[in-house]
Amino acid sequence: MCGIAGFVGKGSVNDIESMRSAIEHRGPDANGIYYKDGVGLAHTRLSIIDVSSSGNQPMWNEDMTAAIVFNGEIYNFRELKEELFLEKSRVFKSKTDTEVILSLYDQYGEKCFEKLNGMFAIAIYDFRLNKLILARDRFGKKPLYWGIFDGTLMFGSELKALFKHPLFKKEIDLKSLNKYLTYEYVPTPDSIFKGVHKLEPASYMSFSGGEIKKKIFWNTAFDTKNISIPQALNILEDELEKSVKRRMVSDVPLGIFLSGGIDGSAVAYYAQKNSKEKIKTFSIGFKEKTFDESGYAKQVSDFLGTEHHSKILSAEDLLEVIPRIGEVLDEPIADAAVIPTLVLSEFAKEQVTVVLGGNGGDELFAGYPTFQAEKFASLYSIIPTFIQNFIGRIVSFMPVDDTYFSFRFKAKKFTEGFWVDKKYRHQTWIGGFTKKDREKLFRKEVWDELKNVNEYEEIDNYFKEVESASWGNKLLHLYQRTYLMDEVMAQVDRASMFHALEVRAPFLDFVLADFVNSLPYSYKIKGFTTKYILKKLMKGKLPQNIIDRPKKGFGIPLTSWLKNELKGFCNEVLNEKDIKVGGFFDFDYVRTLKEDHFSGKEDNRKLLWTLLVFQLWYKKWM
Which residues belong to the active site? Predict the structure, then answer.
């Protein structure tokens, strides 16, 4: 795991060095740059496989005609290396996956990316063709930003790197800001800045002679298999175990993020099963009991026999972390889970350099409560409209409850989303500001530019990609391409790499994901039972109460803290002067959001947090 950056066009050796230093936190073990004739490449290395200097980058091919900088891990690189030995005699100078990618490029050209099983953001400069090639893994696990300014293409693992190029222009894209407030992140392929893009997942692009060309190298399979539950369970176990084993290859200490939920616990089960030593597991908990999962994590650890490490946090502990969010997130992401992820990553890094996590399980197996809400919505639609309206009024008068995802919070979200177009319902349930909210939030002249723009264009496009799939599998594809990639995995990447910790996601092995995506939707959620087939698989392998536990996200007690411990901080960040300096928002509405929350009239935690993150980001970077 590392950081990459570079440019083709105008720039100097000092510029590429500045770009490298901006992402040094991603790879503190070694670094390198190349610059000549308008081509700059930079790399910061977190040594995982072959920790010797022979793995340093930029790395060159045998005849010094192509160079690579690479962020990620290729889990099948040893098999690919054997393939190369069979097809052509090669002398490898290192034991790295990086050198295998370069050799594959020499052998197969741009088709080499189809062969890679892993997480990656890759930049290859081919000096024979005067061409830059950028590639990103199938699920977009590793970030890759790019943009063209004054004819110069620049790229980087994080926006911080692009900021350092003198041609970069920091101009907020209002359409992207509108989407950020809607989704709580800016969906791919856009970024918060005009002219800057995120490379789409499962694709590569080339830049030569001022021309951009893109190609998709993989699409997930949603063609439903005719397969029985027992057959599916056998294949699922085989693929999940193989995926975990592939991700246990490391030349540095490795552990597991263990929250006590079924996803991380399943990963821990197969990891411990395939380890001769006790696997190290890590969790954090909260003094606020409705948010604390540390007891469940300890139960799983005791059951599996792992070496468990836990840390209990208070509001005061996290207060020290929150002001750093602007530094960690160079593009705003309003997922409060970034805070505990930062703390957990720092805690785990004291003992290991690589961890496995359960990310992706919810998006593959319909694990979120929204999938249950989708089922309930079909029943709710039968109720006469006047009764639906009456229920909505009752919900609005219910008292605010500070507990984790209280009934009132879920009921209010459900009734809001029920009336939205079916395609956009889930985004309303999990997102931030509705269109009515944004109309109040934006200053009139700003809203006039945005009110007729389709903020859901990405959702429309993702539904078109899987037109033949069942409705349920279409929803899963949507989650995998939006919430998982641009919120969950993005915040995990920034938080973990801020502490130079590599996080691997066994559920997102593309072979495993292809299989699960091809299963009937009814195998993933049966009635109101989410993750049905995964729970069936883990029966007897984990404590039954862990398998049956309701979904609980990696959250913090924001509703309560914003009224108490974080109230002063909220007022300090969302102050009238700074809001007006940005020129985007109506402070009177922001004041109302704060006052209604502080008084207990409304639970505005998601809206306030989305604004807090943006203002912290704006103050740090703009």
Answer: 2
Spatial distance between the Cα atoms of 622 and 619, rounded to a whole number of angstroms? 6
Q: Position of tokens 């997930």?
A: 220
Least Cα distance to 148 among 8, 330, 20 occurs for: 8
Closest by alpha carbon to 312, among 281, 284, 348, 341?
284
Q: What share of the chain is helix, strand, coil (3-state, %, to 5)?
A: 50, 15, 35
Distance CA 163, CA 143 (A): 16
Q: How far apart are CA 133 and CA 203, in angstroms?
A: 11
Instruction: Round to whole Å and give the CA distance between 616 and 622.
Output: 10
Nearest-CA neighbor of 332 among 79, 34, 619? 619
How would DSSP label each residue in 71-89? EEEETTHHHHHHHHHHHS-
Q: In this structure, how many other beta carbons lie within 10 angstroms of the beta carbon of residue 219? A: 12
**pLDDT means over runs of 10, the chain (622 residues):** 94 98 95 96 91 90 95 95 76 89 95 97 98 98 98 98 98 98 98 98 97 95 87 98 95 92 97 96 83 86 97 81 90 94 95 97 95 78 63 59 58 64 90 95 97 95 93 96 97 96 97 96 95 98 94 74 90 96 96 95 94 96 92
- Residues 6 or more apart whose CB falls under 8 angstroms from that of 333 comprise 184, 185, 486, 487, 490, 491, 494, 613
**Are 172 and 107 contacting, i.e. CB atoms less than 8 angstroms apart?**
no
Which residue, among 249, 255, 252, has the nearest Cα to 348 in the 3D structure?
A: 255
What is the pLDDT at residue 388? 60
Three-state DSSP at 112 gives helix
